[in-house]
Write a structure and sequence with these properties.
By secondary structure, the protein is mainly α. Helices cover 66% and strands 2% of the residues. It has helices at residues 2-15, 31-51, 55-75, 78-92, 99-121, 140-151, 160-163, 171-179, 181-199, 206-220, 232-249; strands at residues 130-131, 134-135.
Length: 258
Amino acid sequence: SNIILGLLLVLLSIIKPYNEIGQMTLGMSNPNSTGILLFYNLIFNLIAIYNTRKKTVRYCVSALYVCEVVLLFMANSRSTLICSLLIIIIIWLNIKIPKWFILLCTVWPMIFVTIYIYLYQNKIIPVDFKILNKAFFTFRERIWIGIYQLLNKDLWLGHYANFHNEMLHNSHFDLMVQYGIITLIVVVLYLYIIITRLNDGANLSIVGKISLVGILLAIVQGSSESAVLDGGLAAYICTGSLLLFMRDSSTDKKNKFI
């Protein structure tokens, strides 16, 4: 299925690559959404490359992987490009994933909002500063500041009625605004416990390691887009599939009941 999806994405890059303002979105709402879908498919193709024994299939999937990397550069989604590079480095160097890194990844989108607003309000980084030919400040900082001010005392329980249709471009902030800080803490703890338990005391195979890093970096990408926690059915299916890959590649029998 990941091969079919990859081929469809390549086909879309030929039929309808750009939106009305010239961004490469493959028919999606924005380059970050495109980047996240490409990232998930890159993860599944990487798993297929390591997991298959047939050379022909491996070569075909590898060629598709290269095509998707090219599409990723064309979409110019900075967070996805950084995460895609990180996963290659971590897998290539066989870096062990400690608990503090899992915790950092699960809370990173909220840390990012705080740092981003601080940098903007204190004018530490110039407003016209660019990374990869894109502005560092993209107006979302004003949206986040405005919503903080509007919510005021509703931060603990959120305000779903007013914000459930808003695009807030950050998965954790989106969850907090709609359902409150209490719900956000519960969800983050749940993610941390599940991922840590699957990683602890288990000799994960290469497939499990790719799945683990893929899930963590998908959560990190929630800094710029409502990816894992509020990313729609496709994101839920992809994340759930990676968790299943982790569970099935674990040698710890206790993890089979997760």
